[in-house]
Amino acid sequence: MKNSRTSRVAFRKNRHARRRQTDVTRQFENDGDVSENLASTERLSGKGDLTRKRTVKLPAVEGGVNGSGSGNDAWRGQVLHAHGLDSFVRDEFGQIVRCAIRQVLHDVATDQRHPVSAGDWVHVQGRGEEAAICFIEPRRSALSRSSRGRRHTLVANVDQLFIVGSAAQPDLKPGLIDRMLVAAESAGIRPVI
Question: What is the model's pLDDT at position 147?
Fold first, then answer.
């Protein structure tokens, strides 16, 4: 059994190649003695963003998304909702803790719009302002939609989907109910109308 796995992920958006040196001709004309110290060529093409990746070593786990493993100091909780960079997790005592998400979880979960969603069981390191989600357990079920070619999970680990419509105001939308029924069936969730 493997102890770790290697994953190639893209650099974050703020990691770009260095700008190439400008005004080399002007510097050469002003100071001719520097010409021996200058490189004879400068590569202009460079590697593109499509090939610029980094290697991340993570502990091997069965399913789930791992962001460096959950150590002995990590505690288990359920995500109530995710809002921007923060997720609100309920611990085993019923307290709600605001948690950040480790950047490596964003990098490893490349096919998803956001790595955590409401209903996910996670492992968190730290408490208070220092709390960070380090591991996402495998999901039993997930209700998701497609957003710009990526999967956006709305809710995870649910057993039933209640579909409620109004009789008068606003008008009943049978197309919306049909879409919800199809989404529930494809996710393996029992729909209730």
Answer: 75
